[in-house]
Write a structure and sequence with these properties.
The chain is of the alpha+beta class. The chain has 20 helices and 22 strands. It is 32% helix and 10% strand. Strand 10 (401-403) and strand 11 form a beta hairpin.
Length: 655
């Protein structure tokens, strides 16, 4: 009988689970054979078989953890994008500053995900040996393992680009080393393989889960991951990108990224998103209008449906709570109708909370994101400068205003008045109000946050990794998207939250982005699809109206493709802010060179009011800048892996 090895393809050292399925270490071949005997025992018992599957789940990332580069479960995409700035040195900032190298171990997730892939493969191959599982249970469990395997592969692809696909059945001990040390597959080969896994998983997974199973994938989750995968694949970075003409396999000379643009990939991506939508299982979170819901802005004429009841228009709902409640713990993950796939627990909220409630204030919002949000009537801040109804000015608020249980105090600077509701749900600006109602310490609740010198949120708390510096908000803005009014890390408690990994609003934006890129008609299987202005308008406006903003007209949706493209891209920037997508969006659109180059800017936090209110480069640390070059489209494959397997081609620019 041949023994099968599930190599991560990089080394002769094999990692396998022990019989207790508690850890996975790299071991030698003799130990591998011994552990195979343990696995023979594992897959005879239902309980141990289920424990093995639970162990595969342990390779999922720690959602929102974007600061701990030494932890291979960390996810750096928020801190590494232009939507955030991390005041901690090294780690993400080394990458942002472009001084990262292939020998840097921070955020090295290569080994982690290949171990996860190997264990998922072992489960898929060997779980059928367990006769104690019913056929229905077996089918569902294998679907879960297929989903996890696809998820891990996609995570590797997002970070490293084209990767190596491990043979389904691993390798045998009899195979020569040249067959085991395989090189990289092309991007399209990776996409086709992961797409197949996700489609197979979607047929095995249930449509719904009981609340006790939150965090396990459903059929819709598999299709949502597929939607993002195919959208990325259709995008300019991976679709006919001649900038990578020399990025080839050593032996075959084949291009890792295709050199000919194929517009039909946008059609495939559009249909994949529509498949999720057409399940009819998910809907955008909306909270009905209440006594303190603000009235819609007056004199909006650009959208004739604006004053109609949602979803036709924007009336009848509370736009602030409809957005804020998705993320702040007001709705449990199992009750969130917009959530398609999420993970229990969240790791980022304390790092973007003000010092006064026990937060670290170490991950900040830059001025760029603040300025992207619209005025309450849908105009940009540039247009708001001349708007008589809802001006963008420097005049402070004269009296406090309360809406949707949100307090806008007196004395708030004019730049933060008359803004759209997603702004207030996301941006913690100077003098924004924090409740912290769970705190038993009066000084840590019901306060206006002050980020200037001597302010109540300018505690210069020594950071664990900060030598000769301090943790505090260096841009004058923190993210409150994940803060509940009850939250207090000092003498209080935190509302339980989940990480929103995939949600319906993203799928809507995926769909209309792909539709907008079509210049012809395409038949994929039994479906024919082309650019459809009515569909673009409908799904775009569902998001805009939910935010309390005017939508676009049918004429606008059917007009210039580039103009609609820019509207969709800006909508993704705002709607999906701090959800880990912006980093990949600017790369796949090939605009990172414009968006991720230059200093981080914010308020003059080294000055007191009123001088505080001016846009300046962050000067408190020398690494407050982004430096993008083409090599940063992908992370370097760890040099240790290249050394072990010379058949792997390093990513361009990291050699």
């Amino acid at each position: 009988m041949k023994r099968i090895i599930y190599f991560p393809f990089i080394t002769l050292l094999i990692g396998l689970c022990t019989c207790f399925i508690q850890s996975c270490n790299y071991l030698d071949i003799d130990q591998y054979i011994n552990d195979m005997q343990s696995l023979d025992t594992v897959f005879q018992k239902k309980g141990l078989t289920e424990q093995f599957l639970y162990h595969v789940y342990s390779y999922l990332p720690t959602p929102g953890k974007s600061w701990d580069g030494g932890n291979d479960a960390s996810v750096p995409w928020i801190s590494c994008s232009d939507e955030a700035f991390n005041v901690e040195p090294a780690g993400a900032n080394d990458f942002c500053n472009n001084i990262f190298t292939a020998n840097n171990s921070d955020f090295n997730r290569w080994k982690r995900y290949y171990e996860g892939i190997r264990n998922a493969s072992i489960f898929i191959q060997r779980a059928p040996e367990c006769k104690e599982l019913s056929a229905i249970q077996m089918r569902e469990y294998i679907g879960e393992a297929q989903f996890l395997k696809a998820y891990f592969y996609f995570e590797l692809m997002k970070q490293y680009g084209p990767i190596s696909l491990v043979p389904e059945n691993g390798f045998t001990l009899e195979q020569p080393i040249d067959e085991i040390l395989i090189g990289r597959n092309t991007w399209d080969e990776c996409v086709d393989y992961v797409d197949k896994l996700l489609q197979e998983a979607s047929l095995k997974l249930p449509n719904e889960r009981p609340s006790a199973d939150f965090g396990k994938p459903t059929a819709g989750a598999a299709l949502a991951v597929r939607s993002r995968l195919l959208l990325y694949s259709a995008s300019p970075l991976f679709n006919g990108n001649t900038s990578y003409a020399d990025f080839r396999d050593k032996k075959t000379g084949k291009n890792f990224i295709n050199q000919t643009k194929d517009e039909s990939k946008w059609a495939i991506a559009a249909l994949a998103a529509k498949q999720v939508i057409d399940k009819g299982q998910y809907e955008l979170i909306t909270v009905p209008k209440d006594y303190d819901t603000p009235e819609l802005p007056e004199h909006v004429i650009s959208d004739p449906d604006f004053y109609s009841t949602y979803p036709t228009g924007a009336a009848g709902i509370d736009h602030y709570l409809s957005y804020a409640n998705i993320f702040n713990g007001s709705i449990s993950g199992s009750k969130n109708t917009e959530l398609i796939f999420g993970m229990p627990n969240m790791s980022i909220e304390r790092y973007c909370a003000p010092n006064k409630i026990g937060g670290y204030s170490s991950i900040c919002i830059p001025q760029k994101l603040v300025d992207a949000y619209y005025m309450i009537n849908g105009k940009t801040i540039e247009e708001g400068g001349s708007d008589p109804d809802y001006p963008y000015s420097q005049e402070k608020s004269g009296t406090p205003t309360t809406f949707s249980s949100y307090l806008l105090p007196a004395g708030v600077y004019g730049w933060y008045l008359n803004r759209e509701m997603r702004f207030y749900a996301t941006v913690g600006f100077n003098k924004s109000y924090y409740v912290g109602s769970s705190s038993t310490y009066d000084d840590s609740k019901n306060f206006e946050a002050e980020y200037f010198p001597g302010g109540n949120c300018r505690y210069e708390v020594s950071g664990i990794w900060m030598v000769g510096s301090y943790r505090y908000c260096m841009t004058g803005y923190l993210c409150r998207k994940f803060q509940h009014p009850e939250d207090s890390y000092r003498y209080g408690s935190i509302k339980p939250k989940v990480w929103v990994d995939y949600r319906l609003a993203e799928i809507y934006l995926n769909y209309i982005e792909a539709l907008n890129e079509l210049t012809g008609s395409y038949t994929i299987g039994d479906k024919t699809i082309s650019r459809d202005p009515a569909q673009i308008r409908y799904y775009f406006n569902l998001i805009r109206h939910r935010a309390g903003l005017p939508g676009i007209s049918l004429a606008e949706a059917g007009g210039d493709i580039e103009k609609v493209r820019q509207l969709i891209r800006k909508e993704r920037f705002i709607e999906l802010a701090w959800e880990g997508l912006r980093y990949f969006d600017v790369r796949r659109w090939k605009i990172a060179n414009e968006e991720e180059n230059g200093p981080v800017t914010g308020m003059a936090v080294y000055l007191k009011e009123p001088e505080f209110y001016r846009v300046v480069q962050v000067k408190e640390v020398v690494y407050a800048y982004k430096n993008f070059t083409m090599r940063k489209n992908f992370w370097p494959i760890p040099q240790t892996e290249i050394t072990k397997n010379t058949n792997i081609v390093q990513n361009p620019g990291w050699e």
